[in-house]
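Lecture notes, part 5. Sequence design as translation. It can be helpful to think of inverse folding as translation between two languages: the language of shapes and the language of residues. The source text, in structure tokens, appears below.
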């Protein structure tokens, strides 16, 4: 492992990067603007970095006092959950089993919302008894938050059955805080100070800054509860339809959209991650490939130059619009031909085709100093909302 692998590529005094290819000009402008913003002490770019609003996905940001909601994103708490089953992966490989599971999934794990509050799982007591800071957010939690708990969402969110190297069956879930994260972000952006280049900030020494941190923490907890609710629903589904049980002792979760207080090289920062995993020494992580491609479980190496972070996936190389224009339905079907999925929504999934993303193997090579691979997983069945 070279010194450059550990320290990353130095793009400026404040910016280090681990990249598979040169930064596009628009990404570089967004990164430079962020690095010049008030109170920014360090920026680390992960190999899956790509343009997304004012702050790129795949960005890690350290500040002393100010928080930047756009450096967390509106899907606060978005992350991954993985858990194994007590069975070989072959139980979902047959056409009969795969079609049975695919037919049951929309009712079991809705893409958008449950049909009613009575059909949704209850909000955990920890969320019911933790106050959000504003009445409209409390009201949203009782309604949208409740009816969306245990739902997947669209875009790049997914639920996947996978096989590890020992042919054991695993579940991987990628989802976040659904409408609640957006509500919380929009509410606090109203109180944020707009600075250069469209960036907005809140001071943690003010009530407004503390309120954002309180509500963002609630959203992280909600997102975790959302993924766990889906995992529980899947456990019931597979036990009912295939007679297999989930190994709950294997479950672990990570969050890749958050801001939290961390110590790095003797200093304490507010570390923002937008589409980036925390990767402290021995910290577990999940890095998915694109739809129909292999994923990995990892542990962190605690690379301080990267603010103890890693990529959260392969990273887009085509925008959604570009993917829809360039990737045909026939191409998508060819790219995912070995994976079971609902082909009736295939036309709406072209923007999620593997060719719209980087090769995960290349991403893993350039961040070898950030994480170590502990398990490789091959997809069998993928469930996504078009």
């Amino acid at each position: 492992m070279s010194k450059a692998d550990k320290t990353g590529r130095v793009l400026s005094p404040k910016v280090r990067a681990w990249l598979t290819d040169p930064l596009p000009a628009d990404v570089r402008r967004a990164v430079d603007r962020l690095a010049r913003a008030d109170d920014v002490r360090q920026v680390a770019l992960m190999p899956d970095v790509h343009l997304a609003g004012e702050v790129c996905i795949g960005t890690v940001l350290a500040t002393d006092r100010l928080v930047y909601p756009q450096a967390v994103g509106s899907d606060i708490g978005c992350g991954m959950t993985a858990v194994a089953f007590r069975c070989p992966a072959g139980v979902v490989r047959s056409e009969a089993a795969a079609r049975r599971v695919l037919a049951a999934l929309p009712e079991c794990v809705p893409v958008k919302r449950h049909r009613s509050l009575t059909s949704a799982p209850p909000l955990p007591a920890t969320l019911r008894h933790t106050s959000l800071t504003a009445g409209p957010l409390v009201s949203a939690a009782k309604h949208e938050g409740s009816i969306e708990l245990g739902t997947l969402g669209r875009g790049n969110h997914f639920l996947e059955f996978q096989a590890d190297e020992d042919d054991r069956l695993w579940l991987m879930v990628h989802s976040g805080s659904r409408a609640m994260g957006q509500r919380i972000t929009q509410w606090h952006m109203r109180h944020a100070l707009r600075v250069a280049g469209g960036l907005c900030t809140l001071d943690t020494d003010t009530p407004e800054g503390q309120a954002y941190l309180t509500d963002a923490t609630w959203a992280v907890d909600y997102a975790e509860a959302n993924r766990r609710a889906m995992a529980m629903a899947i456990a019931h589904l597979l036990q009912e339809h295939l007679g297999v049980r989930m190994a709950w002792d294997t479950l672990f979760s990570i969050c890749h959209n958050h801001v939290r207080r961390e110590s790095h090289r003797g200093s304490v920062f507010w570390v923002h991650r937008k589409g980036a995993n925390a990767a402290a020494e021995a910290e577990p992580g999940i890095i998915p490939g694109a739809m129909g491609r292999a994923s990995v479980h990892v542990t962190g190496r605690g690379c301080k130059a990267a603010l103890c972070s890693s990529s959260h996936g392969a990273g887009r190389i085509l925008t959604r619009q570009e993917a829809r224009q360039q990737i045909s339905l026939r191409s998508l079907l060819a790219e995912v031909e070995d994976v079971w999925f609902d082909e009736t929504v295939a036309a709406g999934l072209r923007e999620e085709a593997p060719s719209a993303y980087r090769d995960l193997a290349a991403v893993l090579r350039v961040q070898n100093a950030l994480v170590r691979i502990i398990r490789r997983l091959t997809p069998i069945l993928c469930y996504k909302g078009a």
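The translated text above is only one of many valid answers, since several sequences can fold into similar shapes. The chain has ten helices and 18 strands.
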